[in-house]
Amino acid sequence: MSNAIYAALTRQDGLLREMQVIANNMANSSTTGFKSNHAIFAEHIAAVGDQSESLSMGSLAGHNFDLSQGGMKHTGGQFDLAIHGDGFFVLDTPAGERLTRSGAFQLSAEGNLVDAFGHQVQGAGGGAIAIPQEVTKVSIAPDGTLSSGEEILGQVAVVMPDGELNQEGGTMFAAPNGHQPIEEPSVMQGTLEQSNVSSILEVSRLIEVQRAYEAGQTLIEKEDDRINQLIKTIRQL
Hints:
By secondary structure, this protein is an alpha+beta fold. The chain has 2 helices and 18 strands.
Protein backbone atom coordinates (compact mmCIF):
# COMPACT_ATOMS: atom_id res chain seq x y z
CA MET A 1 0.00 0.00 0.00
CA SER A 2 1.33 3.47 -0.87
CA ASN A 3 2.24 6.11 1.68
CA ALA A 4 -0.48 8.38 0.29
CA ILE A 5 -3.14 5.78 1.04
CA TYR A 6 -1.77 5.21 4.56
CA ALA A 7 -1.93 8.95 5.29
CA ALA A 8 -5.40 9.27 3.76
CA LEU A 9 -6.78 6.32 5.73
CA THR A 10 -5.63 7.71 9.07
CA ARG A 11 -7.26 11.02 8.15
CA GLN A 12 -10.47 9.24 7.13
CA ASP A 13 -10.58 7.37 10.43
CA GLY A 14 -10.25 10.62 12.38
CA LEU A 15 -12.92 12.35 10.28
CA LEU A 16 -15.31 9.43 10.82
CA ARG A 17 -14.85 9.69 14.58
CA GLU A 18 -15.37 13.44 14.45
CA MET A 19 -18.66 12.86 12.65
CA GLN A 20 -19.66 10.55 15.50
CA VAL A 21 -18.82 13.28 18.03
CA ILE A 22 -20.91 15.82 16.10
CA ALA A 23 -23.80 13.36 15.82
CA ASN A 24 -23.67 12.82 19.60
CA ASN A 25 -23.74 16.58 20.19
CA MET A 26 -26.78 16.97 17.96
CA ALA A 27 -28.55 14.06 19.65
CA ASN A 28 -28.04 15.80 23.03
CA SER A 29 -28.98 19.31 21.94
CA SER A 30 -32.05 19.08 24.21
CA THR A 31 -30.39 17.21 27.10
CA THR A 32 -30.37 19.18 30.34
CA GLY A 33 -26.88 20.19 31.41
CA PHE A 34 -25.12 18.54 28.44
CA LYS A 35 -21.76 20.00 27.38
CA SER A 36 -20.73 19.80 23.72
CA ASN A 37 -17.65 17.85 22.61
CA HIS A 38 -15.02 18.65 20.00
CA ALA A 39 -12.50 16.34 18.39
CA ILE A 40 -8.77 17.07 18.79
CA PHE A 41 -6.38 15.93 16.07
CA ALA A 42 -2.66 15.31 16.42
CA GLU A 43 0.17 14.66 13.98
CA HIS A 44 2.51 11.71 14.36
CA ILE A 45 5.56 10.74 12.36
CA ALA A 46 5.98 7.18 11.12
CA ALA A 47 9.21 5.70 9.80
CA VAL A 48 8.85 4.10 6.37
CA GLY A 49 12.34 2.69 5.90
CA ASP A 50 16.02 3.34 6.48
CA GLN A 51 16.53 4.96 3.09
CA SER A 52 13.22 6.87 2.96
CA GLU A 53 11.89 10.01 4.54
CA SER A 54 9.44 9.70 7.43
CA LEU A 55 5.69 9.87 6.82
CA SER A 56 3.52 12.47 8.57
CA MET A 57 0.00 11.32 9.46
CA GLY A 58 -2.86 12.89 11.37
CA SER A 59 -5.15 11.05 13.78
CA LEU A 60 -7.77 11.70 16.43
CA ALA A 61 -5.96 12.37 19.71
CA GLY A 62 -8.97 12.85 21.96
CA HIS A 63 -11.97 14.99 22.76
CA ASN A 64 -12.36 18.40 24.34
CA PHE A 65 -15.58 19.57 25.95
CA ASP A 66 -17.04 23.06 26.21
CA LEU A 67 -18.02 24.03 29.76
CA SER A 68 -19.69 27.31 28.83
CA GLN A 69 -23.07 27.82 30.46
CA GLY A 70 -26.17 26.83 28.53
CA GLY A 71 -29.40 28.80 28.46
CA MET A 72 -31.65 28.81 31.51
CA LYS A 73 -35.21 27.48 31.25
CA HIS A 74 -37.81 28.19 33.92
CA THR A 75 -39.78 25.04 34.78
CA GLY A 76 -41.31 25.83 38.16
CA GLY A 77 -40.33 22.36 39.37
CA GLN A 78 -39.70 22.29 43.09
CA PHE A 79 -36.52 20.24 42.76
CA ASP A 80 -35.37 21.52 39.37
CA LEU A 81 -32.09 23.31 40.09
CA ALA A 82 -29.60 25.22 37.97
CA ILE A 83 -26.26 26.81 38.81
CA HIS A 84 -25.70 30.30 37.49
CA GLY A 85 -21.99 30.74 36.91
CA ASP A 86 -19.34 28.31 38.04
CA GLY A 87 -19.92 25.10 39.93
CA PHE A 88 -21.23 21.54 39.79
CA PHE A 89 -23.66 19.42 41.78
CA VAL A 90 -22.23 16.24 43.33
CA LEU A 91 -23.77 12.80 42.72
CA ASP A 92 -23.06 9.57 44.58
CA THR A 93 -22.75 6.88 41.88
CA PRO A 94 -21.59 3.23 41.96
CA ALA A 95 -18.32 4.43 40.38
CA GLY A 96 -17.81 7.08 43.06
CA GLU A 97 -18.62 10.76 43.25
CA ARG A 98 -19.41 12.44 39.94
CA LEU A 99 -20.09 16.08 39.09
CA THR A 100 -22.93 17.36 36.96
CA ARG A 101 -24.65 20.54 35.78
CA SER A 102 -27.89 18.67 35.18
CA GLY A 103 -30.18 19.62 38.07
CA ALA A 104 -33.39 17.77 37.14
CA PHE A 105 -33.75 16.21 40.59
CA GLN A 106 -36.59 14.38 42.31
CA LEU A 107 -37.35 12.50 45.51
CA SER A 108 -36.72 8.79 45.79
CA ALA A 109 -39.07 6.38 47.56
CA GLU A 110 -36.90 6.84 50.66
CA GLY A 111 -37.28 10.62 50.51
CA ASN A 112 -33.74 11.34 49.30
CA LEU A 113 -32.95 13.87 46.62
CA VAL A 114 -31.77 11.97 43.50
CA ASP A 115 -31.23 12.51 39.80
CA ALA A 116 -33.15 10.80 36.99
CA PHE A 117 -30.95 7.68 37.31
CA GLY A 118 -31.40 7.34 41.07
CA HIS A 119 -27.99 8.73 42.03
CA GLN A 120 -28.15 10.55 45.36
CA VAL A 121 -27.45 14.27 45.36
CA GLN A 122 -24.77 15.03 47.93
CA GLY A 123 -25.17 17.61 50.65
CA ALA A 124 -22.64 20.31 51.51
CA GLY A 125 -21.35 18.20 54.40
CA GLY A 126 -21.45 14.96 52.45
CA GLY A 127 -24.14 12.30 52.50
CA ALA A 128 -27.66 12.24 51.11
CA ILE A 129 -30.24 15.02 51.40
CA ALA A 130 -33.40 13.64 53.04
CA ILE A 131 -36.78 15.35 52.89
CA PRO A 132 -39.27 14.31 55.59
CA GLN A 133 -42.51 12.80 54.26
CA GLU A 134 -44.66 15.41 55.98
CA VAL A 135 -42.89 18.24 54.11
CA THR A 136 -44.79 19.26 50.98
CA LYS A 137 -43.18 22.57 50.09
CA VAL A 138 -39.44 23.14 49.97
CA SER A 139 -37.65 26.42 49.31
CA ILE A 140 -34.07 26.40 48.04
CA ALA A 141 -31.90 29.47 48.62
CA PRO A 142 -29.16 30.65 46.23
CA ASP A 143 -26.53 29.04 48.48
CA GLY A 144 -28.28 25.67 48.08
CA THR A 145 -29.94 25.61 51.52
CA LEU A 146 -33.23 23.68 51.58
CA SER A 147 -35.85 24.79 54.04
CA SER A 148 -39.53 24.31 54.86
CA GLY A 149 -40.83 27.32 56.71
CA GLU A 150 -38.25 28.00 59.39
CA GLU A 151 -36.88 24.42 59.38
CA ILE A 152 -33.54 23.84 57.64
CA LEU A 153 -33.53 20.50 55.81
CA GLY A 154 -30.02 20.53 54.39
CA GLN A 155 -27.83 22.17 51.78
CA VAL A 156 -27.02 21.04 48.26
CA ALA A 157 -23.27 20.84 47.63
CA VAL A 158 -21.94 23.10 44.87
CA VAL A 159 -18.28 22.49 44.11
CA MET A 160 -15.44 23.16 41.70
CA PRO A 161 -12.98 20.42 40.67
CA ASP A 162 -9.33 20.57 41.67
CA GLY A 163 -7.50 20.41 38.37
CA GLU A 164 -8.42 17.81 35.78
CA LEU A 165 -12.02 17.12 34.81
CA ASN A 166 -13.02 14.11 32.70
CA GLN A 167 -16.34 13.76 30.91
CA GLU A 168 -17.91 10.35 31.35
CA GLY A 169 -20.72 10.32 28.81
CA GLY A 170 -24.06 11.95 29.26
CA THR A 171 -23.87 14.84 31.71
CA MET A 172 -21.49 13.48 34.36
CA PHE A 173 -17.85 14.35 35.00
CA ALA A 174 -15.13 12.75 37.10
CA ALA A 175 -12.72 14.88 39.14
CA PRO A 176 -9.68 12.62 39.81
CA ASN A 177 -8.04 15.23 42.04
CA GLY A 178 -11.14 15.91 44.11
CA HIS A 179 -13.15 19.09 44.46
CA GLN A 180 -13.67 22.08 46.73
CA PRO A 181 -16.93 23.79 47.77
CA ILE A 182 -17.77 27.17 46.27
CA GLU A 183 -18.06 29.86 48.92
CA GLU A 184 -20.87 31.83 47.27
CA PRO A 185 -22.78 29.61 44.82
CA SER A 186 -25.79 30.81 42.87
CA VAL A 187 -28.43 28.07 42.80
CA MET A 188 -31.68 28.79 40.98
CA GLN A 189 -34.80 26.85 42.03
CA GLY A 190 -37.43 25.95 39.45
CA THR A 191 -34.91 26.35 36.63
CA LEU A 192 -32.86 23.97 34.47
CA GLU A 193 -29.70 24.68 32.49
CA GLN A 194 -30.13 23.64 28.88
CA SER A 195 -27.52 22.03 26.64
CA ASN A 196 -24.87 24.44 25.33
CA VAL A 197 -24.90 22.73 21.92
CA SER A 198 -25.49 25.09 19.00
CA SER A 199 -27.45 23.11 16.41
CA ILE A 200 -26.55 25.57 13.64
CA LEU A 201 -22.83 25.31 14.43
CA GLU A 202 -22.97 21.51 14.61
CA VAL A 203 -24.73 21.25 11.25
CA SER A 204 -22.07 23.50 9.71
CA ARG A 205 -19.31 21.35 11.22
CA LEU A 206 -21.00 18.18 9.96
CA ILE A 207 -21.16 19.51 6.40
CA GLU A 208 -17.50 20.54 6.57
CA VAL A 209 -16.39 17.13 7.87
CA GLN A 210 -18.50 15.27 5.31
CA ARG A 211 -16.92 17.24 2.47
CA ALA A 212 -13.44 16.57 3.83
CA TYR A 213 -14.28 12.86 4.12
CA GLU A 214 -15.55 12.76 0.53
CA ALA A 215 -12.39 14.49 -0.68
CA GLY A 216 -10.27 11.92 1.15
CA GLN A 217 -12.26 9.08 -0.35
CA THR A 218 -11.72 10.50 -3.83
CA LEU A 219 -7.97 10.72 -3.17
CA ILE A 220 -7.84 7.08 -2.08
CA GLU A 221 -9.76 5.94 -5.16
CA LYS A 222 -7.48 7.92 -7.49
CA GLU A 223 -4.35 6.55 -5.80
CA ASP A 224 -5.72 3.03 -6.07
CA ASP A 225 -6.42 3.53 -9.78
CA ARG A 226 -2.89 4.89 -10.26
CA ILE A 227 -1.33 1.85 -8.61
CA ASN A 228 -3.48 -0.56 -10.64
CA GLN A 229 -2.53 1.23 -13.84
CA LEU A 230 1.15 1.06 -12.86
CA ILE A 231 0.88 -2.69 -12.25
CA LYS A 232 -0.78 -3.23 -15.64
CA THR A 233 1.92 -1.21 -17.38
CA ILE A 234 4.71 -3.22 -15.72
CA ARG A 235 3.06 -6.51 -16.69
CA GLN A 236 2.96 -5.44 -20.35
CA LEU A 237 6.67 -4.75 -20.47
